[in-house]
């Protein structure tokens, strides 16, 4: 019986390797070579890495949207290959652990491992995108103040973009630089702002874009509107910090309660192995243990959600 599972395991690995080979785009190697050459030239002339404005987010593609928000949109093919490799590796790891402990669940463990690997990679890209969005949000009030000063000095919006692209700080500087180059290449201003709103996926920047659109359509004092938006963002930051201070104890309690079962189990195994080893050696008990770990993870997730507030 075990030999059948081993053969299934080897066949699935072979199919995964072949799938990776055929999924890779025909131009991925050439794009990787050109990207490496560009990095060498930038390093040689001490120039900053330019943003490829010709690469746009794959509409309807969740991975492409997350990469665009994380500032890695030009690495779509490379990240797609890593995503597939991570999925296969996750399946292999789960299957290997299952063959060692519960051989009967090897195939199911491989499928679960593939989903876990794919989900983990997406979560990693999402966390990078979230960190980048947080940095942009922290820089946005100062950026808006610069816009207000330039507009009150009589500069048009395109000149304001040029000032921000030259004097801003990363990562928001790269977004305005990309938008400025798009405008210089002839793209409509409304389209360029909508693309920036897609990459900077925050309500405050979308509000800024709508304010600029309304000002272009019906007129009005755009500088005062942007100044009001900047003040509201700063007040919201103060409220967010206040809420984090109030919920800090609840978050630590949820973290302690969520980790307590695992700590007790490991401590019992370390102090008295003979008490828990018979449970781990029983095949049904192992299945029950996997189910309990899953339910505990869901409970921990719900506890953290209950103590986390978006402001």
Attribute tags:
311 residues
Structure, described:
This protein is mainly α. It has three domains: 2-133, no CATH class; 136-231; 238-306, no CATH class. It is built from twelve helices and no strands. It has helices spanning 2-23, 28-44, 62-69, 76-101, 106-152, 157-167, 172-184, 189-199, 203-218, 222-271, 273-281, 283-306. Helix 3 (62-69) crosses helix 5 and helix 5 crosses helix 6. The N and C termini lie far apart (56 Å). The model is unreliable at 46-60 (pLDDT under 50).
Short structural summary:
The protein has 311 residues and is mostly helical. The chain has helices at 2-23, 28-44, 62-69, 76-101, 106-152, 157-167, 172-184, 189-199, 203-218, 222-271, 273-281, 283-306.
Report the count of strand segments: 0
Beta-strand residue percentage = under 5%
Low-confidence stretches: 46-60
Global structural class: mainly alpha
Query: Kindly state the mean pLDDT as a whole number?
Result: 76
**Main sheet attributes: strand count, strand direction, barrel closure:** none
Order of helices and strands: HHHHHHHHHHHH
Q: Classify the oligomer.
A: single chain
**First-last Cα distance:** 56 Å
Roughly what percent helix?
A: over 70%
Characterize the overall form: elongated
Helical segment count = 12
Number of domains: 3
The Cα radius of gyration reads: 26 Å
């Amino acid at each position: 019986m075990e030999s059948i599972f081993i053969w299934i395991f080897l066949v699935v690995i072979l199919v995964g390797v072949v799938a990776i080979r055929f999924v890779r785009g025909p131009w991925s190697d050439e794009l990787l070579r050109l990207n490496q050459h560009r990095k060498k030239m930038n390093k040689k002339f001490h120039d900053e890495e330019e943003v490829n404005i010709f690469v746009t987010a794959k509409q309807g593609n969740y991975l492409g949207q997350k990469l665009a928000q994380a500032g890695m949109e030009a690495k779509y093919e490379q990240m797609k290959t890593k995503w597939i490799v991570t999925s296969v590796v996750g399946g292999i790891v789960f299957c290997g652990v299952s063959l060692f402990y519960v051989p009967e669940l090897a195939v199911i463990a491989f499928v679960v491992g593939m989903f876990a690997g794919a989900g983990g990679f997406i979560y990693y890209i999402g966390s990078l995108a979230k960190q980048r969005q947080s940095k942009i949000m922290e820089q946005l009030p100062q950026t808006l103040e610069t816009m207000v000063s330039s507009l009150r000095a009589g500069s048009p919006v395109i000149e304001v973009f040029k000032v921000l692209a030259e004097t801003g700080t990363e990562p928001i500087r790269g977004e305005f630089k990309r938008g400025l180059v798009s405008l210089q290449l002839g793209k409509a201003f409304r389209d360029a702002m909508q693309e920036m709103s897609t990459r900077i996926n925050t309500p405050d920047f979308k509000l800024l874009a709508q304010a600029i659109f309304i000002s272009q359509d019906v007129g009005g004092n755009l500088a005062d509107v942007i100044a009001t938006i900047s003040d509201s963002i700063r007040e919201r930051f103060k409220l967010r910090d206040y809420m984090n201070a109030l919920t800090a104890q609840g978050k630590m309690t949820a973290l302690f309660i969520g980790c307590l079962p695992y700590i007790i189990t490991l401590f019992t195994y370390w102090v008295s192995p003979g008490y828990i080893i018979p449970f781990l050696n029983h095949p049904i008990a192992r299945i029950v243990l996997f189910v309990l770990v899953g339910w505990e993870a869901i409970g921990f997730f719900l506890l953290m959600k209950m103590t986390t507030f978006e402001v």
